[in-house]
Every structure is written in C-alpha cells, then in structure tokens.
C-alpha cells in the first residue's frame, strides 16, 4: 500500500513535469515560424550560398523563432512565377535576377540595359548607394518587399552552332533570353532571334535544340552544367545581371519592426556571401568550363557589340523616360 502511494505520487510528479515540458516545447514549436525561400539555381550555385547565409543569419538573429527552408532549382517555379508567389503569399523569400522583375516593377528595367556597367565594382557601388536603396523601395509600390541587392553577374553568350566573336556571328542564332523586354530588344538589335523563356525550361530547350544558345553569368553556366549542351562560350559580358532578395509583404507586413530588420540583415548577409562566390567563380569558372570541353572566346572586342545594341537605349527611354537612366549613369561615373 505504501509502495503504491509512493509510486503514484511519483508518477503524478513525473506527469506534472512532462505536461509542463510538453507545454514549453509546444510554445517553442508554435513560435518557430517556417519561412520558404525559393530560387532557380542548383544547390551548388552562388544563390545557394546566399540562401544558406540568409538561413544562418535569420535563424541566429531570431534565436530560432524563424526556420528557413530552401527550395532550389526552380522547385517553386521560374522567377516570374515565384515573384507572383510573393505577391499572393505562397512563398516568403525569393532570390531572383532582375530578369522578369521589370514586368512587375518597371523602374528596375533600367538596370538591365546592355553595357550599362563596366565592372563589378561599379555595379555594386551603384546598387549599394542611395539610388539602389531608392530602387529597392520601389518594390513596395508593387506588392513586393525589396530586402537587398544581391548578384547574378555579367552575362556571356553560349551557343552550340559556332564561335561568336563579332555581332555578325550572332546573326540568326535562336538565343534564349530572360523574360525581359530590354534584353529581348538588345538581342533583336544584334540580329539574333531572342526567345524568352523561364530558366527551369532552358536546359531541356538547349538539349532538344529548340534554341541554339543562351546567355548567363559564368556562375550560372557552371552551376547548371551547360557544357553538356553548349560548345561555344564568348566572354561578351554584354550586361550586368543584378539579383535581388525579395520578401512577401504578406509575411513581412505582419511582423514587428525588430523582426523585419532581422530579415533585412539576413538578406544583406546573403548578398555579401553571394557576391563573394560570384567573384571566386569569375576567376576559376572559365578554366573549369574549358576543362569540361567548352571552347571559350576570351578576347572579344566589345565595341561593335556595344554599337549594335545602342538602339535599345533609345527604345528604352522612349518608353520609360531618361531620368532614372541618367541618374544611374551619373552615379556609375562617380563610382
Ligand atoms: O537568376 O533566368 C536566368 O537566366 C537567370 O540568370 C537565372 O535564373 C538566375
């Protein structure tokens, strides 16, 4: 009888303890909010490096209150689809090029003009300036939250038909472009046949010969094994491709100022890590692509390319005005 009494009070104590422990655990579980982060590139890419930095920073700053789940390789769709997802709240964070962004935030089209920036330092300096902040702020007018400018890189042309060293070589080539009217216009001016397409469809399109070529930064060409389907690479560096870390207003507008700041800081850490990876691969990537059998045209005289795409500027300013372009150019020249 005595033993039984001891046992039951013990089990009551244990029961009480475990109820409390469960309640605490439940409170913690409830507090940990899952954050989905999407991008189109592989888990070895510079975006994946940026996603990891975002995750580590946010989870640390929030002391585990947020847990980030990365969805790489276009698992949540192409960049245009994911941007739509941010607007309706089906995804929380997206790392994307500005490729399809102009369709949502026309003010950003200016950044996609060919040969606008000459070097990485210059592009980064403009994006990190007040002007860059202003452009990030414009996203709020279009149901998006601009958290930080990140980086995709200078884009180069690949194709499976011939070595391209002059604009005439690009004539008639079916080149996949991003879903970006400024890029499409530039390739039209070059005499190529631009075919806009979402990135997740690109590898198969190249493999099946639906298009002859594409253009992307070294990092993307490496991370996507494009050497398997493209023989020629020309280092045209025809346009700097910014990336941006975007958030969904549906998540972010509901957070405290402090929590929102954690997201901004995580996005800045993400951008920094991504840029470092772009710089590293700019150095090593070309040699790697050659090892994989690509023929690389390294010394391209860009003058004739620049001349050929010049009308794209006029078409752009006719449609969007020249004020923002002039401000970007002025800032770039002081960088
Ligand atoms: O943002 O679509 C593209 O070519 C982009 O460069 C790629 O999705 C990375």
From TrEMBL:
Keywords: Coiled coil, Signal. Residues 252-291 form a coiled coil. GO terms for biological process: transmembrane transport. GO terms for molecular function: carbohydrate binding. It comes from the Bacteria. Residues 1-23 form the signal peptide. GO terms for cellular component: outer membrane-bounded periplasmic space. This is DctP family TRAP transporter solute-binding subunit. It comes from Billgrantia pellis.
């Amino acid at each position: 009888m005595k033993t039984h009494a001891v046992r039951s009070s013990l089990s009551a104590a244990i029961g009480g303890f475990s109820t409390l422990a469960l309640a605490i655990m439940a409170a913690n579980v409830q507090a940990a909010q899952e954050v989905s982060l999407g991008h189109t590139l592989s888990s070895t890419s510079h975006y994946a490096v940026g996603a990891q930095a975002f995750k580590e920073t946010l989870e640390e700053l929030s002391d585990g209150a947020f847990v980030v789940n990365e969805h790489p390789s276009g698992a949540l769709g192409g960049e245009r689809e994911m941007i739509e997802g941010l607007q309706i709240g089906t995804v929380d964070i997206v790392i994307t090029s500005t490729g399809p962004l102009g369709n949502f935030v026309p003010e950003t089209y200016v950044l996609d003009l060919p040969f606008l920036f000459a070097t990485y330092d210059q592009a980064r300096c403009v994006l990190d300036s007040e002007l860059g902040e202003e452009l990030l702020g414009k996203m709020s007018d279009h149901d998006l939250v601009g958290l930080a400018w990140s980086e995709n890189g200078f884009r180069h042309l690949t194709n499976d038909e011939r070595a391209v060293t002059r604009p005439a070589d690009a004539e008639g080539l079916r080149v996949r472009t991003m879903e970006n009217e400024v890029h499409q216009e530039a390739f039209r001016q070059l005499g190529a046949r631009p075919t806009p397409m979402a990135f997740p469809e690109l590898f198969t399109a190249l493999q099946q010969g639906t298009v002859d070529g594409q253009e992307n930064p070294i990092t993307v060409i490496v991370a996507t094994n494009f050497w398997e389907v493209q023989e020629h690479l020309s280092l045209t560096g025809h346009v700097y491709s910014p990336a941006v870390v975007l958030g969904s207003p549906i998540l972010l507008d509901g957070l405290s100022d402090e929590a929102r700041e954690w997201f901004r800081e995580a996005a800045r850490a993400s951008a920094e890590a991504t840029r470092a990876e772009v710089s590293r691969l700019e150095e090593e990537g070309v040699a790697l692509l050659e090892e994989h059998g690509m023929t690389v045209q390294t010394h391209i005289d860009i003058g004739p390319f620049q001349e050929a795409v010049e009308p794209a500027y006029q078409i752009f300013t006719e449609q969007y005005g020249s004020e923002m372009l002039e401000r970007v150019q002025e800032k770039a020249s002081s960088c």
